[in-house]
Amino acid sequence: MKSSVVISTEEVSSNPNDLYLRLAYPEDYAAICAIQDEVMAELIKNNDKNLFIPTENSKIREYLEREDVLFLCGQTSDTVGAYAYTFFGSDIECDLSCHFDYQQPVATFDTVVVRGKHRGNGIHAKLLRLSITEAVLRGCSIMAATVDPNNVHSLNNFLKSGFKVLKTIDNEEGYSGYKRYIVYKILSKEEVI
User: In the chain, how many domains are there?
Assistant: First the structure.
């Protein structure tokens, strides 16, 4: 099952800054890698590289193909301006279900990236909301994510969406040297949009 979420396919505006959200496809691979490279270069330039752990390009390609990954993107009239992906399988190295003494399925909202010119428009929150809906439709009871404590905008988006901080990690596999909060939210059917 690729996705249960019904995503708006409204007409693409002629304004290159207008985004609509859609499922990402393998043919979006190059555009998604370009966004990640652009954002990472910006973070390095601003001495904020710890705010984001880039994903290996080969993993991005794999995630675009997997049925247990919801991969969304924000499309403009000419390119992809944002993306996010959520894991629903426990065989992915970034799965956060091991942090919960809970026998129900846990969705891991792993990554969200928004190009600079699209920030401040609620894209992170919209991508998160769609991912929560998908998680509920797939029978998940919890959604978890990691966020750098200094990434105030992302952290605030999670907190405004009802997430709570579970704990701080900094030396776990995949996060070595990076301090992260694990945030989580108990999901309910009322959150389906």
Answer: 1
Intervals of the chain under pLDDT 70? 1-17, 90-91, 102, 171-176
The backbone torsions φ and ψ at residue 9, rounded to the nearest 5 degrees and listed phi first, read -115, 40
pLDDT tens, residue by residue, 114-168: 998 888 888 999 999 999 999 999 999 999 999 999 999 999 999 999 999 998 8
In which domain, by residue range, is 88 found? 20-191
Which residue matches tokens 């029978």?
A: 139
Measured CA to CA, the distance from residue 88 to residue 102 in angstroms comes to: 15
- Within a domain: residue 2? no
In a domain, 15, yes or no: no
CATH code at position 47: 3.40.630.30
Q: How far apart are CA 51 and CA 138, in angstroms?
A: 30
